[in-house]
Amino acid sequence: MVQLYNLHPFGSQRVVPCKQEPAQFCCGHDVLFVASAAASCGVEVFAVRREGRCEPLGSFATLGPVLRMAHSRAGDYLVTIEEKSKATFLRAYVNWRFMSAGSSRVCVRMVGHKMEESYTETLKDQMSIVEMALSDPPLCISCCPVNGDLLVGCKNKLVMFRLKYLVISQNLRVLDFERSLILHIDNFIPAEVAFCARHIAITTELDVLILKLVQQNADRGEQCTYQVSTIEKPVDGGIKDEDLAAHSLQLELDEFVICQKPVELLGEESKLCKIPVTLESTELSTEDKKHFEVQYLLFRRFTPDQSPFGFCEETKLHSVQFLPVYQTGSSVTANEETENKRELLSLFCFFSLPHVGYLYSVGKLVELISTYQYSEKSEQAVLTPQFLHVITSESLQCFTVRCSAAAARDEDPYIDTTVKACPPVTLDVCTLRMQLFIGPRAICHYKNHIILLTKADTEDITERRKPSRRMLSRKADSNKSRTNSESEPGWNLYIINTVSTIQLYREMVDYSRTYENVRTESCIHLLSEAHLLVRAAIMDPSFFKSDEKEELLRAFRESCALLGDCYSRFDTKDYHLALPYYRMSGLSVTEVLERRASESDEIQTYERGFIFYLTHSLNEELNEELSKELADKVLQIFYLADPVQLPHIICSPCMKNVCPLTAVKYLRKVEDIMPSVVLTLTKAFMALKMGDLMMYECEMNSHKETMLACGFVGQPKLLRECKEGIVIPTEFAVHLKAMQPGLLVAATVALHENSKIELEEADMFFKMLCNNGEDTVPQLLVDFWEALLVACSQEEVLPELLLRVTHQYVWRISKKQLPETKPLKTTEDLINSCDHFGFIFPWVTFIMSMESPLGKDCPEDISKLQSVLCGQSIDITAALPILEPLADAGNVGLTIRVLCSTRLGKYEESIDQLLRQYPAAAVLYAQHELKGDSQAVWWNKLLPELCERARLTRSDCPVLISSLKETLSVVATELELRDFLSLLPEDGTAAFFLPHLLHCSQRKLLR
Question: Which residues form the domain of 982?
Fold first, then answer.
């Protein structure tokens, strides 16, 4: 479907002062080439200035009448197909500017001719004509806009010439061509070709084939044929082999014309077109030779009866062309350093039937973008990044295109999110203007100019003398000859100046306002067209050099704001687009609210798009504070449109200036309908702001503490805000710290468990809440770590938490620093509720029962540290550097060293340490630790050590004797009699052990 809007994309027009009737013309970088249709064969060159002014630069002769011509910006050369004596020739005109400037020197040479010997410094300022010999007559040509390579279409083949530069001397560089590749295509006569970035489009009268040359490994052969499977494969409802037979097969039998079925094959399926392509490399150089293979992208076959206007024998394809879109300037935030880097982003291909045009994307994905229905038979069309210009027998038509929308998605596949948006590729195309002309015949495009050739029949000339209905100002150049008005020729070559992007954008915006209250879809459609118009201008590589750069950026933001207005005010299915468009506009929430408040409607209605935008914007961490009036207005909006969101909206940082009394009034109304814990907490928050502690306590006492902690998960902003990445506690959190620290810690644990706050954020939160320095850990944070160890379900967090609490316990013990507030949990609480805190071992308790000055300073921290080390969760290897400060800390240090040695399996080392300081604890240690695989340490280590120490003391040592007896009891019970006897000393003191040995042996027999 094509929308029709009466806009004015065409501005003034000027007549090109050609001396002879034009036959062919094309545009260069800043010039217009016009080939004469008269017997005097030549090309006139005109400089195209601002507002379409044409200044003759000169002319040069050709070999014969020009049948086709094309200009390449890369290399700045003009290539022609010329005819002489019924033979066609392919010629490239290089350095033509010297000839057009008045120089008479011309150098004619064959392609591939060695120029190093013939070229000198004195010959560099001359035009060169490069003749390219072909085995078959050239039919059509195309220059690649990316690298300047040339593609020539001949019968059953395409010949590619590579553009190259030869360095003759230090100051002389000559442009040359090299025949690099031949594509052999059987039974295929190209009518038109297009060439861009190794993409090739070929059309016959009714067929379109798009190929891509893909570079392959250099070790393959010089020739490569894309082999197509001969197995029948139904495509698109059963396309058979006979339907895809030889191209343009039309058999006239008994005055009937047999036509093949229309076919469209995309991507991999296009290989089924049965058109084999064979590549023949013809490059002379052997180094760095590039080998290619053919990738089929699209095949489409039409039939004459495809026109909606019935059967037409003149149905032929025309105007095949590629449109590249470059990466340069594709982002409105790009910088000027990327200006000269022209990286191909997207590629589009257009071709047309007399009544229908087709625009395909052939870059990353091959798909049909748009279909253009013409009101009458078209003669030719030209595609630009912003428009499609089509000429018919009576008019010049301007259609919008969707290339910028497709390219934006190629650049950013995630563009359609809550942050960014772009009008869809499937948006209906529209006709901006149908400008009447008499006899349009040919068209081409250059920047913001349309070059149009008109040829009127005899009756048209008479008709043209009548008052014209055209609205354009037809201003002829001053040097246009009009001496013989009675024999006025029936042709004209116009340069039509298209209006600036900004001017047309303004007209589209103004036009859209006529549909605001009548047809909202048309209003959005027009504003989307305006947005795509500006987006296409911004994606142009010349954007950074444009005089309209700042205006275009402002227009881009304004178009986003206008689209945001539409989606926020109109009830559309795409209401959610209000959010990304407003964000892209750069408008603040205050500015959006003021735009809405400026509307003249007495009874405000709030559509889903506006509520969607406000909800998302206010729920984010924005560094923006609404005024009291706007904040109260927001309360009213949500109370009327979405009351469930009121508690969340009130907690937004943007709503700091909201009136608490007004907020409580609305919350109470909502509570009567939909009560919730979050709503209760929000009312308590407002009560704190008002200083009403009685109301605060009433609200907080209405739910259990566990319910309140879960309520904070529903709205974390009740406790903390985030500004520029810094977590800041709210007034509510400050109050809870002083009055209900347990609830605050429980709520923070709940937030962490529900992924509402990270561990580092919680650290920052408690440090800021307690006004502690960066390196100081408040007790409330330790309480949080301990509570999280009890409740944490995230296994990966546990090792970090255990090391953190261990570090804090060690720091306090070593510094003899008591916590600034009473810990929320005792050691016993942690042991009873958490597996990570183990029961303290008896031998540890025994050692700590001895007098130790250090143990009296931080008893709770010491017991918690020992409990962690007695547990099985902590990684002792990682904890050793943390525990180092307590290595020499008396009894505490001894217990920690022995605990660490034990966890590392160093039992003998642990026994040595205990025997040196507390021999009685050694047996307790052995009874607790020496079991299973470590039981042999009893008789291999402990028994000999006790015997040795008892002998060395040579005095009554009851502790050693008692420990020795306990050890003997275990050893005698566990070992056989012979093994036990072998352990006894051989110094004659065995009699000392005999009574005890007899007792142990009897006990073992009774067991």
Answer: 920-1006
